[in-house]
Amino acid sequence: MSVIVAGIHTGIGKTLCSAILCEAWGYDYWKPIQAGDLEQSDSLFIKNQVRNPRCTIHPETYRLQLAASPHFAAEQEGIEIDKNKFILPQSQNSIVVETAGGIMSPLSDNLLNIHLIKHLNLPVILVSENYLGSINHTLMTISLLQQAQIPIQGIVFNGDKVQSSMDFILKYSKIPCLFTIPKLKRVDSDAIKALIYKELIK
Q: Is the whole-model pTM more than 0.90?
């Protein structure tokens, strides 16, 4: 089954999580919107670091030059982001779909990431990170997804472990932890494969 990798905010580790899933599961990868860093895009990262031959990288629906919130980048470039143009790529394989920013990040004046997630009608893997305030951000994100009746497949914790925070989030939300991603000294295909082996991700 295809899944959406979403985060509690931007820069939370969604692309690394997506790479791990694509490597471990052999899923395809699709990022509907890339804003900025087109020469070092998330799709290129997946292409360069995922070695599983079953993984196909599907082109973005929108490629924006400005490294900014998609709604602002699109406005500056005279582009209107239309929800109806987001169509899950045709594939015989399941797909990891990575959002741009947190679930309430705007894609246009009346379109948020949560609306795109609902539109694609796929379950979410939520990436969290342990920092002061992450319990609040994680539980709020879970609450909004649940209010929108979007199924959450599980949580992935990225970065340094704070066991008490992780335990509280899991106990309160009753959502399982799929795996954890430690702070890596390097991020490349070898590190990704080693992490998959260590976490026994299947």
A: yes
